[in-house]
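Sample intake — Fe2OG dioxygenase domain-containing protein
Collected from: Protea cynaroides
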Amino acid sequence: MGEVDPAFIQAIEHRPKIITGLEAGGIPLIDLSPLLSSDSLEGYSKDHPQAILDLVEEIKGACRDWGFFQVINHGVPYDLLRRLQTAAKEFFDLPLEEKRKVRRDEENPLGYYDTEHTKNVRDWKEVFDFVVDDPTVIPLSLEPDDHRVRVMNNQWPEYPSDLRELCEEYSRAVEKLAFNLLNLISLSLGLPAKRLNDFFKDQTSFIRLNHYPPCPTPHLALGVGRHKDAGALTVLATDDVGGLEVKRKTDGEWIRVKTIPESYIINVGDIIQVWSNDRYESVEHRVVVNSEKERFSIPFFFNPSHYQMVKPLEELVDEEKEPARYKEYSWGKFFSARKLSNFKKLTVENLQITDFKIAK
């Protein structure tokens, strides 16, 4: 990835500003330790310890005001993450021909890939994707009346030999954190803790190992172009090389997220925006690169089952005071359409939840 192909070059208005020191210190940092010492959020009420009540309010404010927050004391063993980061680096250090032995394609979008596009511009990165539940089922086609499905299976490289075991162990640990966060978000909306859990019975969640090599022209390219996450929640682990930028809701300014050791960066996805009927918003973000250091990150994309129809939750809709702001849509079809766009440059804008917005 030494030569800069024109496919990487962003339009002038979307190119990053190469400045230092502008970090999003205002992004909430939330301590989840009260959750770890609590037996369960089931039966949550005002009789819960004050620490739990305060935690729910912190989650509410973070989702409403930022759409992003960071968590510490989250319960995921740091040593497990460290070992997975080491194995990920060993994999990406392999010769290209070795990595391409597990290359993903349109038939099975799992495995290694180095030509992904965001907003029809190629990203300066290489990735390795695997699903949390193996196998995972998604729609075979995008046609609304086609109910056939296809099966996605993880594919694993021969080396590093421990990569599969580490990925599977890590996925279970982060999945537990994702459900805890989902329960807190549900409570923050005034719903029972486990109101949203059944949507994830046959989840389409996946984890990505990201590698962003040094870029000779960081002022022209992006590691990942501006986008919003299509799923419910994203739980991101990153190294100490900064790069994630969030578009601040108050003024539209791109703000660098400060990396905090042993923390996770959480963002609300499009599905929670729709479920909450716009009480919470999925926020645009991107990844900038630099010319000196490589960067690694590991996002967990928490997604419901392919057969779920996504629409505002009935408890949060009132036909007179708060009517539904979105028409329902098929998550499986939406997910498949977004996956397809990763493989080719489209002639039209990618599918967005705004396509299902109901005019006022």
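Post-analysis note: The chain has a mean pLDDT of 90.
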